[in-house]
């Protein structure tokens, strides 16, 4: 239901389908009921198998949907963070004035989406390994919980227009699982926490330096 709410209230509304709030909530409950029935039938089919293997198999499939939900929330916030300044600059260059709001060209959204996939494919493997296996021992059920929690927080921030880091939020969710299971890798949290502290001022300094260089050149 949480994932379907994300899609309907944050995604499908941009298609202007004319769905009222009542229709949206009915659709959410129908999707939730269908997913519950599917999960119930699937769980019944696994009843005779070993409980551990059954749980592992069921949540492995369910985690696919929470991963998609987290990816959706990531695009709704992190990609918006990146494309916001770009859209503002393009609008200033096009209109030669500063407006309160700027239209985002569809080609820009497509380009940034492709860039996200390319970055994940070629560079993101180490981060996936760190968050997925090194920070805490994860089971499909705990991974399901962490991804759903992180997706909910990121989407809530997106609905309020707050730019947040989905990576930091997911690390917090995984760390919460590690705290409950008492297997959190606190040694790894030290460099992660240090990176959180360093990256903000480092980005600010580089931004100022780049701006001053461009201002001197042009």
TrEMBL record:
Transmembrane domains' residue ranges: 22-43, 103-123, 159-180, 192-214
GO CC aspect terms: membrane
Keywords: Membrane, Transmembrane, Transmembrane helix, Transport
Any single biological process term in GO: phosphate ion transmembrane transport
Compartment list: Membrane
Membrane-related topology note: Multi-pass membrane protein
InterPro entries given in the database record: Phos_transporter
GO molecular function: phosphate transmembrane transporter activity
Predominant subcellular localization, coarse grouping: membrane
Superkingdom as given in the UniProt entry: Bacteria
PANTHER family documented for this protein: PHOSPHATE TRANSPORTER
Name of the protein this chain belongs to: Phosphate transporter family protein
Organism name: Neisseria lactamica ATCC 23970
């Amino acid at each position: 239901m949480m994932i379907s709410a994300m899609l309907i209230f944050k995604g499908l509304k941009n298609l202007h389908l004319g769905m009222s709030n009542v229709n949206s909530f009915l659709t959410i409950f129908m999707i939730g009921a269908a997913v519950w029935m599917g999960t119930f039938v699937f769980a019944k089919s696994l009843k005779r198998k070993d409980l551990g293997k059954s749980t592992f198999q069921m949540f492995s499939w369910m985690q696919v949907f929470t991963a998609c939900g987290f990816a959706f929330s990531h695009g709704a916030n992190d990609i918006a963070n990146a494309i916001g300044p770009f859209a503002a600059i393009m609008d200033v260059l096009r209109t030669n004035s500063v407006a309160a709001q700027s239209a985002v060209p569809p080609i820009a959204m497509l380009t940034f989406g492709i860039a996200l996939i390319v970055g994940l494919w070629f560079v993101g493997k180490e981060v996936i390994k760190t968050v997925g296996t090194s920070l805490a021992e994860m089971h499909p059920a705990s991974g399901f919980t962490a991804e759903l929690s992180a997706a909910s927080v990121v989407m809530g921030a997106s609905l309020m227009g707050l730019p947040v880091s989905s990576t930091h939020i997911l690390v917090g969710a995984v760390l919460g699982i590690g705290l409950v299971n008492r297997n959190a890798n606190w040694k790894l949290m030290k460099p992660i926490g240090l990176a959180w502290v360093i990256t903000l001022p480092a980005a600010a300094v580089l931004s100022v330096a780049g701006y001053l260089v461009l201002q001197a050149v042009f």
